[in-house]
């Protein structure tokens, strides 16, 4: 076989180089095509963003006008001595807050709210969980007591009544004479009537009892709905293993219902900080006797609409706002736990 002359051009490389050049040109062209294809998702994302922004614009505007703006206005009024009538209130800076620090009545109200903050959620949730567990897991076969739907309606009934109506009803129940539902039997037996609303040592606990009575029915229904979603097989398997009602509640019901309990605790805590109507309607002196039942909301109303010290009342409102936010944040943080799936 004759040897190839060294001077003869190597023609075999030409197609390879040509092919490589064609592939290179195609490779250089691909990013441009890919750029055209990636532009379409960007246009879709922009359209989606405009669509979402259009739907959010009205709610955000309403929230800003009716929620954020009043808070901002309250913060600004708290820095003035506005009495509700002057067009140009005088700026006093933090003077209202310095006065609050030495206001013994206000700090008495803060103490009552703090006590309600602990006791109202604790008692309401404990009672509501007990009733809900009996309604859903009680009875002979563990399938709930007979007539549980009727009992839920009865428990929920106080929620139908306005808070002011509840206060008026219990004002009659606590009457100190023979017409009071609680004192009438005592008087009939020859015993001294109890001043449920006139005795400084009893009045606060009477208010707490009314608040628990008014709130517990809603949480019975709420917890019952949560318990109804727990599979019955879990209870049946635990009963086969010999678990009693106590173990069923603490090992199955409570862990699976913890998120609902957490929400209830936060709502009840906020309600304890914002309580007003029951105290204002039921008690003598609107927080008496001798400030034994007064709360922050009552002092805010009294200073604003009886003493016309709107700047001072707004400072109280600012303090109440930060107490409420701090409680909600602390409750969410401290009650956080691993979620149980089923």
TrEMBL record:
Residues 1-10 have a biased composition (Basic and acidic residues). Its main location: membrane. It is found in: Cell membrane. It is a multi-pass membrane protein. Residues 26-36 have a biased composition (Low complexity). PROSITE patterns: ABC_TM1. Keywords: Cell membrane, Membrane, Transmembrane, Transmembrane helix, Transport. One of its GO terms (biological process) is transmembrane transport. GO terms for cellular component: plasma membrane. The chain crosses the membrane at residues 51-72, 114-138, 150-174, 202-225, 256-282, 310-332. Residues 110-331 form the ABC transmembrane type-1 domain. Residues 1-36 are annotated as: Disordered. It comes from the Bacteria. CDD domains: TM_PBP2. Belongs to the binding-protein-dependent transport system permease family. This is Sugar ABC transporter permease. It comes from Sphaerisporangium melleum.
């Amino acid at each position: 076989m004759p040897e190839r002359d060294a001077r003869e051009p190597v023609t075999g490389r030409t197609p390879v180089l040509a092919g490589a050049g064609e592939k290179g040109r195609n490779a250089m062209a691909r990013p441009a095509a890919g750029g055209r294809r990636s532009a379409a998702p960007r246009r879709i994302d922009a359209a989606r963003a405009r669509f979402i922004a259009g739907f959010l614009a009205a709610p955000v505007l309403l929230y800003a006008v009716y929620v954020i703006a009043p808070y901002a206005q309250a913060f600004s009024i708290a820095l003035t001595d506005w009495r509700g009538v002057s067009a140009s209130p005088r700026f006093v800076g933090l003077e209202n807050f310095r006065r609050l620090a030495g206001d013994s009545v206000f700090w008495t109200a803060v103490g009552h709210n703090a006590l309600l903050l602990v006791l109202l959620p604790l008692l309401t949730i404990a009672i509501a969980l007990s009733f809900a567990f009996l309604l859903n897991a009680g009875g002979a076969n563990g399938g709930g007591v007979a007539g549980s739907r009727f009992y839920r309606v009865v428990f929920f009934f106080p929620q139908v009544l306005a808070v002011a109506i509840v206060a008026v009803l219990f004002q009659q129940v606590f009457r100190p004479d023979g017409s009071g539902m609680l004192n009438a039997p005592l008087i009939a037996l020859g015993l001294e009537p109890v001043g449920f609303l006139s005795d400084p040592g009893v009045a606060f606990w009477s208010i707490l009892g009314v608040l628990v009575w008014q709130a517990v029915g809603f949480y019975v229904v709420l917890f019952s709905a949560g318990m109804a979603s727990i599979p019955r097989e879990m209870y049946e398997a635990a009963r086969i293993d010999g678990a009693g009602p106590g173990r069923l509640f603490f090992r199955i019901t409570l862990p699976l219902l913890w998120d609902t309990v957490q929400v209830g605790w936060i709502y009840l805590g906020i309600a304890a900080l914002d309580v007003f109507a029951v105290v204002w309607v039921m008690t003598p002196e609107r927080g008496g006797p001798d400030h034994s039942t007064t709360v922050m909301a009552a002092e805010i109303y009294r200073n604003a609409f009886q003493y016309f010290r709107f700047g001072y009342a707004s400072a109280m409102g600012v303090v109440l706002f930060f107490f409420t936010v701090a409680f909600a944040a602390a409750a969410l943080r401290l009650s956080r736990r691993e979620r149980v799936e089923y």
